[in-house]
Amino acid sequence: MSLVIRDAMEMDIPEILKINNHEILNSTVNYDYEPKSLEFQMDWFHQKTKAGFPILVAEKDGKVIGFATYGSFRPKPSYQFTIEHSVYLHPNNRGIGVGKLLMEKLILIAKNQGYHLMVGGIDANNLQSLEFHKKLGFLEVGRFKEVGRKFDQWLDLIFVQLPLE
């Protein structure tokens, strides 16, 4: 197996879109309801790159199997040193260390860019993601009850954070 973690390129967007839409349609990992279009995902890519936010992909044997990124936590100036991250993997490539490699590189980039804190929102039913984040040093800092609704059920959201300094 040849695994590479690298910066995403425009040519990766269709595969990123497939991974993203799979989660939208099949899980509560992503709280969106409707699949995204290629145009939407391209715009997302260009906005993130223009803002200086990284988008990393994991490529296994020449195929994109996961991605990770971060962006602004909130739009107010006092939050400028806090970022919120996302990491998504193709379902057949979980539990083999790909997410860890993506996150380690993403964390390093965030430190190098001078950010103070990385946060993440995790669906409370996604215990694997919570444990994954804890192993990376993230701490659970809050639980919000029934803040989301998807698949005719109320969803609880867990916030985790990692100090970067």
Mind explaining what this structure looks like?
The chain is an alpha+beta fold and 165 residues long. The protein has a single domain, classed as Gcn5-related N-acetyltransferase (GNAT) (Aminopeptidase, 3-Layer(aba) Sandwich), CATH 3.40.630. Helix content is 31%, strand content 36%. The protein contains four helices and seven strands, in the order βααβββαβαββ. The chain has helices at residues 13-26, 38-50, 98-112, 127-135; strands spanning 3-7, 55-60, 63-72, 82-89, 117-123, 139-150, 153-163. It has a seven-stranded mixed sheet, with helices on both faces. A hairpin with a 2-residue loop joins strand 2 and strand 3 (63-72). Helix 1 (13-26) packs across helix 2. Keywords: Acyltransferase, Transferase. Its EC number is 2.3.1.183. Residues 3-165 form the N-acetyltransferase domain. GO terms for molecular function: phosphinothricin N-acetyltransferase activity.
